[in-house]
Amino acid sequence: MKRSNFKVRKKNDRVSLTEDIRNHVIYSLSKEVKDASEWDAGKALALALRDRLVERMIETRDRYRRVKAKRMYYFSIEYLLGRCLGNNLCNMEILDLCEDIFKDLGYDLDEVRASERDPALGNGGLGRLAACFLDSLATLDLPGCGYGIHYEYGLFRQSIHNGYQKELADYWMKEGMPLQVARPDQSVIVPLYGRVESAATPSGDYLPMWVDWDDIIGVPYDIPVVGYGGKTVNYLRLFAARASENFDMDIFNHGDYIRAVQRKIESEMVSKVLYPTESVSFGKELRLVQEYFLVACGLRDITRRFLAQNKNFEEFADYVAIQLNDTHPALTVVELMRYLVDERRIEWDKAWEITRATCAYTNHTLLPEALELWSVSLIEKVLPRHLQIIYEINSRFLKKVESKYPADNEKLRRMSLICEDGTKKVRMANLAVVGSHSVNGVSELHSELVKTRLFPDFYEFAPQKFNNKTNGVTPRRWMLKANPALAALLTDTLGKGWITDLNELHKLEEHINDSEFRARFMEAKRTNKIKLGNFINSTLDINIPPDSIFDIQAKRIHEYKRQLLNVLHVIHLYLELVDNDVEPSCSRAFLFAGKAAPGYWEAKQIIKLIHSVAKVINNDPRAEGLLKVAFLPDYRVSLAEKIVPACDVSEQISTAGTEASGTGNMKFAMNGALTVGTYDGANIEMLEEVGQDNFYLFGLKQEEVEKALREGSYHPREIYNHSPEIRQVFTALLENRFSPDEPDLFRWLVDKLLTDNEQYMHLADFKSYSEAQKRIDRDYAEKEIWAAKAILNTARMGKFSTDRTMLEYAEDIWKIKAVK
Ligand code: 26Q
C-alpha cells in the first residue's frame, strides 16, 4: 500500500502568523486580544511557532520512514541549549517578519526574547557541543536526534555576594516550556535494583532472570530542533522520571499506604537535578541511576522504533547508530547486550557484534580525575544483571588480549574493565572502548593523546578504531543570531551562502584591503562593544570605555584553564602602572565570566580573587581610563551571546595538554576576536588556519609540560627568584593589597603556585604570556593592522563549523546520509 506523504499546511507569511498569534491568545491563553500583555503575545508566538515546528517534525519523520533511513541517536547526559525562541525564528528565517508583526501589534519582540529563560541542562563544553551538533544535523537534513534527561532543575544560577559565588536553584520551566511536546503514550518502564535468579531453558542453557526490581517510568518530552531554512525538524527527546503506579506490594500489604506512595515518589528524584560538576560525583548512587535511566529509556525507544519497521536484529546496526557523549552513557553497551541476549535470545557472539557495530564513543577529557569509575558493589546493587554482563564481556575480552599477548599480566590488569586496586571498580572508559567500533577525541592533539596517553594498550590492540573529530560550533547561533551586526555585513558582502557553508568566509580575504570594508567590520565590533558596555554598566555599575581592548575569558572556572594566570598578569599590569609608573599603551578591560563547581574550593576562591582585584583597580583613579576588571555573573548561553560578539582578545590559556578542544575559542575567533592562547586543544588547529601573525601564541608545548612533570624538574621557586615581576605580584598578594579586610586570604595561591611540580605550571608560562600581551598592545594601537587580523580570523574559521564536524561523523562513523 502506498502511503501518502504528510503535507505541511501552516504558512510563514505575515497574514498566517498574525492570525495564529491571535488565535493562540484566545484559544490557548484564554484572553481577549486587547488584554494580551507583551508576555502573552510572546507565548502566543511561541505556540504559533510550535505548530509550524510540529508539522515539519511530522513531515521529517515521514520522510525518514519512507526511505527507511539509518538514524543516529546521540546519547548525552547534558544539553546546553540556550534560548530557543530567537534561534528558531532565525533558522526559519522569520525573525525580521515577526519583529515587524510585533511592532504592528504594539509589542517589542526583543523584550519577549530577553525574558526567555535558558534551558541550562548542561555544565559547559560537552553539553553545548551536543546542542551545536543538533543544529547542524537538522541543517544538513541528517537523520540524527538527541536523547537526554528532562532535568527539573538545570545547572545552578550563579549570584555573587561579597565577591563569592552563591548557587541558586534553576527551575528552568517556571514559565513553562511551550515548545516541548509531551509523549506520555511512548513512556517506557525502567527496572532497577532487585536480584538475578538463575534458571535454565528447557534445553538446559543458563537463563538468568532479573527479578524483584523496582520500576521507574520514563516519560519522553520532545523539543523540536529546526535546521536552517526550516525544512528539516529533528528532535531532542528528554526523559522525565515518573513514579510507576505499581506499589511496593510488601509495604502495601502491611497497610502502610503512605509509605508505599512515598517510596514511589522518591523515584522521581532521578530526573530532578543535573549534577553541577565535571567530575568527582562518582560513587553517588543517584548519578549512576541517572546514567542508566538515560540509557534504558533511550534504548527502549530505539528498539521499539526499529521493531516497527524491521524484525531482524542482525540488521540492527544497519539502521541504528548510537554515539556515546563521553562515558556517561557507557552502560548502553551493557544494556544493549542484555536486551539482545536476555530478551531477544540472540547468541552472545552475534549480540556482541551487533552492539559494537552500533556504538561509538567520544572522549572529552584527559584529566585523570574525570575518568568515570563505579564501584562493583554499587553496580551490583543497582543493576545486578548488568554486573554479570560486564564480567562476561570482560572475561571474553581478556581472553582475546591474552591470546595476542600471552602471559602479559600487567597488560591484562591495565586493560581489564575491572580495576582491582582497592575496592573493585568498573572502568567506564574501558567499557566504552571495548564496546564501540569507533573511539574519537575532539581535536587533533587530544585524539593523539587519547591514543598515546589514555588508551595506549587499546590503541595497540585495535588501532583502526581510533580517530579524530575536531569540534566545531554552529554559525547559526554564534554568528547569525548572536551577532546581527556582523552577519548583515557578511551577507551584504558575500550573500547568504556563508550561513550554511562557512568556508565561504574565505572570500572575505578579497576585501581585506578595502578600507571601507575594514571600517564596516570594525564598526560592527564597536557596536557590539557598546552594547556589552551598556549591559555591564547597567548590571554592575562599571564603566568600560568602548575604545578599550575587550579582553575576555569566559568558561568554567578550573585550575587547568588557568584563570589565575590571567589574574596574575592583570595584577602585574596594575602594579607596573601604580608602583613602577609604566603605563600600558592601550586601555584594556579584562572581563571574566564562569561558574565554579559548588564543591570546588579553589575555583570559588579564584572568583573571589577576581572580584577583589577588580575592586581595587576599578576604584583607583590612577587606573582610570587604562585598566578595568569585571566579573560578569551567571555565565550561560544567553550571556555568551552578548559577550562573544564584543570580544577583541579571547583568552585560551590552558596548560598545554589539558583542554581537550575548547569551543569558546572558535566562537570568539569567528566573531573577529584575536586569540591569546597556548598550544593546546583546537587552538593548534585554529592557529594553523589563521597563521602565526593572526594569533598570539605563547607557553610551553604539551611534550614540554609532560616532560617537566614526569622528571619532576619544574621548580616554580626558581622562576620566582629570577622574576622581579612575579615577586612584585606575589608580594602584593601577601601584603593583602587586594584583601585589606581579610589578611592572608590569598596566601594559599602563592603557596600553591610555588609548590614543586605544580600541576598546571602557571609560573612557567608567565613570562611568555606577558610578552604575548605586550605584542597585543602594540598591534591594537595600529588600528588598520588590527582590523586586518580580526577580519582574517573571521575569514579563516570555516573549518570550525559543526556542519563540517557532523559531516565527518556521518561519513566516517555513523554511515548516515542526508534525507532531503
Ligand atoms: C562525570 C561523572 C559524574 C559527574 C559528572 C561528570 C562529568 C560531567 C560533565 C564529567 C565531565 C563533564 C564535562 C566535560 C566537558 O565539558 N568537557 C569539555 O568538552 C568540550 C567538548 O568536547 C571540549 O571542548 C572541552 O575541551 C572539554 O573540557
Automatic annotation (TrEMBL):
The GO annotation for biological process reads: glycogen catabolic process
A molecular function (GO) term: pyridoxal phosphate binding
Annotated membrane-spanning segments are none
Q: Which CDD domains did the record assign? A: GT35_Glycogen_Phosphorylase
Reactions catalysed, semicolon-separated, are: [(1->4)-alpha-D-glucosyl](n) + phosphate = [(1->4)-alpha-D-glucosyl](n-1) + alpha-D-glucose 1-phosphate
The answer to keyword Glycosyltransferase applying to this record is yes
Q: Which UniProt keywords apply?
A: Allosteric enzyme, Carbohydrate metabolism, Cytoplasm, Glycosyltransferase, Pyridoxal phosphate, Transferase
For this protein, the Enzyme Commission number is 2.4.1.1
**N6-(pyridoxal phosphate)lysine is carried by which residues?**
667
Q: Which Gene3D superfamilies match?
A: Glycogen Phosphorylase B (3.40.50.2000)
Q: Does the keyword Glycosyltransferase apply?
A: yes
Q: Which cofactor does it need?
A: pyridoxal 5'-phosphate
Q: Where in the cell is it found?
A: Cytoplasm
Show the GO cellular component annotation of the record.
cytoplasm
Under the heading NCBIfam families, the entry gives:
P_ylase
Q: What does this protein do?
A: Phosphorylase is an important allosteric enzyme in carbohydrate metabolism. Enzymes from different sources differ in their regulatory mechanisms and in their natural substrates. However, all known phosphorylases share catalytic and structural properties.
Q: Would you identify the family this protein belongs to, as annotated?
A: Belongs to the glycogen phosphorylase family.
By what name is this protein known? Alpha-1,4 glucan phosphorylase
